[in-house]
Amino acid sequence: MKLTIQLSLIFFLLMLVNACVQQEEKDPVEQQVSSLLAQMTLDEKLGQMMQVNYYGKPEDWNEQLKNGQIGSFLNLSGVIDANEVQRIAMEESRLGIPLLIGRDVIHGFKTIFPIPLGMASSWSTEMAEGAMEIAAKEAKAAGINWTFAPMIDVTWDPRWGRVAETCGEDPYLTSQLGVAMIRGYQGNNPSDSLRIAACAKHYVGYGMSEAGRDYNTTYIPEALLRNVHLRPFKAAADAGCLTFMSAFNDLNGVPTSGNYFTLKTILRDEWKYDGMVVSDWASIQQQVVHGYCETDKDAAEKSVLATVDMEMASRCYDHLKQLIEEGKITEELINERVANILRIKFKMGLFENPYVDETLAERVTLTDENLDYARKVARNSMVLLKNEAQTLPLKKTQKVALIGPMTNAPHDQMGTWVFDGDEKNSITPLTAFQEVLGSNLNYALGLEYSRDKSRAGFTQALAAARKSDVVVYLVGEEAGLSGEANSRGIIDLPGLQSELLSELSKTGKPIVLVVLAGRPLGIGAEIDLSDAVLYAWHPGTMAGPALTDLIFGDYSPSAKLPITMVKGAGQIPFYYYRKNTGKPTDPERMTYIDDIPRNSKQLSLGFTSLHIDYGVTPLYPFGYGLSYTTFDYSEVSLSSSELMMKGDLTASCTITNIGSVAAEEIVQLYVRDLVGSLTRPIKELKGFTRIALQPGESKEVTFTIQPSDLEFHNGEAYVIEPGKFRLWIAKDSESGIASEFTLLNEQK
Ligand code: GLC
Predict the structure, then answer these.
(1) Strand 441-444 vs strand 400-403: parallel, antiparallel, or unpaired?
(2) DSSP class of residue 740?
(3) Is 280 labeled as catalytic in the residue annotation?
(4) Which residue's alpha carbon is at the smallest distance from atom 11 of ligand 1?
């Protein structure tokens, strides 16, 4: 009996070894990884796990590169230096392992596109991909082969400075755009000479930093983590994103850069992710500051066990050798980490092609084609919020007063996270308006910059307004008021911008308000004083031409909000996929603070969930955006009122352009699960598409719904639960007439 068991065990082990060998034979990359790993000393392995912040000259790094002590540089930008450090690593070290050269190429390299929140307003996966493809070319030409993007954190909080870098509040839209950006950076073959590795960041939950204060703690129950925050990262992993970046925040008390549950249990074991995880800047060491680890050595142990492969900018992983000697970790664990790093380098073809053609930059950087594309993306990212009495588009024959601190701000119009963009390439609104209007332009700054508290420019601004037919007033935030570590508690217009608007409104001239900002601002009062409002975010290098394209009607605005615009910080957090609660407020029957009688007792005009000053509706809802035309939506027709577990159903709607100008419309599909084993959101985005319609033209849009689209995590498991659902095909998250269908438990 015993011999039989032994023989069976031997047979099983032989089968297992054979399977692994076959796997490697099947996959040459795995074979290359194993073969190289087998030649490496422990020191060389540990060297691969270090990402070092570059400074000085290549020769300053000779010793460390020759000894194989560096796996990657970040913040090296310049093809000459990049090629030289690669040459030292390839030709003067024992094993010749190439370097990953990483940089934050977030929304462009030299040609700067709108900030990601602006790009997300286009709801265009095509443009997101096209923009990042250009960014990849320009970055590669500068010797960079890895970007720390896309940032696919979901957030509900415009106070958070990094909202500028997100795709907004919705996990589905963020997933679609994030995957498109990854495709843009990596292409279908990341070893292509014009492609770079992408990095899905910041894994995970960083967008829920309490109070919108950057780096702050996050508490996210597992159902919310899985139904919202993990979804874009799962999409990124499935799309083959080569790397992930762990984050700064502690999640439910455990720092995300040492979080075994999110990194090992979910990312590695559940999702089978075999890409590379890099920490954020010193986020491994910050586990000590969090009070989660006592020493840097403890921090190294937590992170390496959680499967963080590479340490950015701190040196905790210098303790890994000692941890092996103490038996706290094994060299096998190090081999797994290093295999992930080598796998990326092989997939990127860096061993065969580590160097970049030094003449490439002149062919691919800041080309007319790149700039035209940046203009197109910027034009499609500006959201028309208001247009009373068709104030817009303006005529080129009108006398226009162009006023405001954002009219001639070549640095600020590019927005946050611009390391390599140069303001000298910016075409400002002032330049573009001068080109269009010539002598019909009356220009006055009014305020020097967004935080300016001086009235010195008011007189000149008011004079310009008085001698014009219409005022175009450009307000917003300097780029430095958003981005990392730049969270704001007050989300109003800074400085005296509002005061100047109030003065301008007294001239009686029509006012077009244009906002260039890194977050949705609470500008209800300013919008009331304006006849038309265009929310332009920070539009990038081509801000000026993109703006005049829309303002003078060469194109109609088509962008839609990727994030709710709240009335003020007091409404935060506010997101469209909120819960119904047990006492919902009917927006039609809202009551307000002035409706409450004096000397009233504990009386409320309706015991429902709202703020008695703000009500329960935002300034503008997710998905909202106007056009120069009007689109009519027909009733939705369903292929059936019943959906089987193995079937699908289609929902169709005919959209007609009933206005007088050609335009594009972003049609949105929302679904509501009426009853669930957890309370369910009142609406969830399940699809969207862009259509272009000539005046009078109609198009039928059809979406297909499958039971898998209705899956959610109920805190214990992913489930698809039979029951009643509502469905909308609409122009935004607050519009449309609901249709109903029932998901049945029966098979088809
Ligand atoms: C920063 C950011 C991260 C960036 C990294 C490298 O602190 O959190 O998004 O990629 O450091 O610059």
Answers:
(1) parallel
(2) E
(3) yes
(4) 281
- 419: CA distance to ligand 1 center in Å? 12
Ligand 1 atom nearest the C-alpha of 102 is 6
Instruction: Name which residue sits closest to atom 10 of ligand 1, judged by CA.
Output: 148
Task: Using the mean position of ligand 1's atoms as its centre, give its distance from the Cα of residue 280 in Å.
Answer: 6
- CA-nearest residue for atom 7, ligand 1, is 281
Which residues make Cβ contacts (< 8 Å) with residue 641, sequence separation at least 6?
740, 741, 742
Closest atom of ligand 1 relative to the 165 alpha carbon: 9
> For residue 247, how far is its CA from the centre of ligand 1 (angstroms)?
9
Q: Which residues contact 520 (CB under 8 A, 6 or more apart)?
A: 158, 163, 491, 535, 561, 563, 564, 565, 566
Give the CATH number of domain 631-744: 2.60.40.10
Average pLDDT of every residue of the chain: 96
Question: Which residue owns the Cα nearest ligand 1 atom 3?
Answer: 280
Kindly tell me the number of DSSP H helices and DSSP E strands found in the chain. Answer: 22, 27
Residue among 81, 153, 214, 280 flagged as catalytic: 280
Pick the CATH number of 382-551 from 4.10.320.10, 3.30.70.100, 3.40.50.2300, 3.40.50.1700: 3.40.50.1700
Give tens-digit pLDDT for 222-247. Answer: 999 999 999 999 999 999 999 999 99
Fold topology of 23-347 = TIM Barrel (3.20.20)
pTM beyond 0.90: the answer is yes
Query: For residues 688 and 703, what is the distance between their CA atoms, to the nearest angstrom?
Result: 9
pLDDT at 191: 93
| Domain-wise residue ranges, the chain | 23-347, 382-551, 575-617, 631-744
Residue 350 CA to ligand 1 centre (angstroms): 24
